[in-house]
């Protein structure tokens, strides 16, 4: 598809030679959309992001970024090509200041560009600007996530991969982070997000992909997913058992 920025074509990948986690995964993410990747624990959602970002080399199949094969490319090459990755959890240097953490995102930039890029990112995050000299550890959870996203934005990525950004955040902060991702997508950044806070994430997404046992099981507009009784049961906290569909129920929220 012409506006597919990210494509997985029959990708097989795993962490050890004997076990494959992605079992011929085929999926795509389109330009300027938020694509939400959901599925049971262990389905391989994070593995999709890690494979995209060069942390796992596919055994077979092809990963494409803007139409170009990127199997086996290094993270540095992918960053330079316009991809950014915000992993799950806290990924800041807690004892360094907001400024220093942010600067680390721009170390590959020519020196003269760093200042203007920092200004550009900080204009988006007034709270980070207010706390620019504070230790990262003193920021709230939502501010820390903003800092991680801001750091990723320093290189002006065209694609942002983000794994469970809402973990540990209050409902209000979750909304803020989602709204930020929506704003980025509306400005043309392609977002591929893994998120277990499905109901909230669906409201901000353009498309939902359901991964089961390392394969794409469903590809739906978010509204359809919210209405689908099977999906409600699997991902949105319903309880009716259905042996035909339940292989590994997700944790409930
Ligand atoms: N570094 C690793 N080494 C070996 N196995 C791993 C590694 N990381 C993940 N796995 C295994 O790969 C499978 C898929 O993991 P992955 O993290 O992609 O799942 P996920 O869909 O993101 O799950 P969750 O919702 O729990 O985050 C799991 O069985 C997991 O145990
Ligand atoms: Mg995961």
Kindly describe this structure.
With 253 residues, this protein is α/β, with parallel strands linked by helices. The protein has two domains: 1-82 and 157-253, P-loop containing nucleotide triphosphate hydrolases (Rossmann fold, 3-Layer(aba) Sandwich), CATH 3.40.50; 90-156, no CATH class. Helix content is 36%, strand content 23%. The protein contains ten helices and ten strands. The protein has helices at residues 45-52, 75-81, 98-104, 111-124, 126-130, 141-153, 171-186, 198-204, 222-227, 229-235, and strands spanning 4-13, 22-30, 34-38, 60-65, 68-69, 83-86, 159-163, 190-194, 207-212, 215-220. The strands form two sheets. A six-stranded mixed β-sheet has the order 6-7-8-3-9-10, with helices on both faces. Helix 3 (98-104) packs parallel to helix 6 (141-153) and helix 6 packs parallel to helix 7. It is globular and about 45 Å long. The model is unreliable at 239-253 (pLDDT under 50). Adenosine-5'-triphosphate (ATP) is lined by residues 15, 21, 39, 41-47. The site of magnesium ion has 4 residues, from helix 1.
Shape: globular
By DSSP, the count of extended strands is 10
Bound ions, cofactors and other small molecules, one mention each: adenosine-5'-triphosphate, magnesium ion
Main β sheet profile: 6 strands, mixed
How many whole angstroms does the radius of gyration measure? 18 Å
Low-confidence stretches: 239-253
Overall residue-averaged pLDDT value:
89
SSE string, helices as H and strands as E: EEEHEEHEHHHHEHEHEEHH
User: CATH homologous superfamily name of the largest domain?
Assistant: P-loop containing nucleotide triphosphate hydrolases
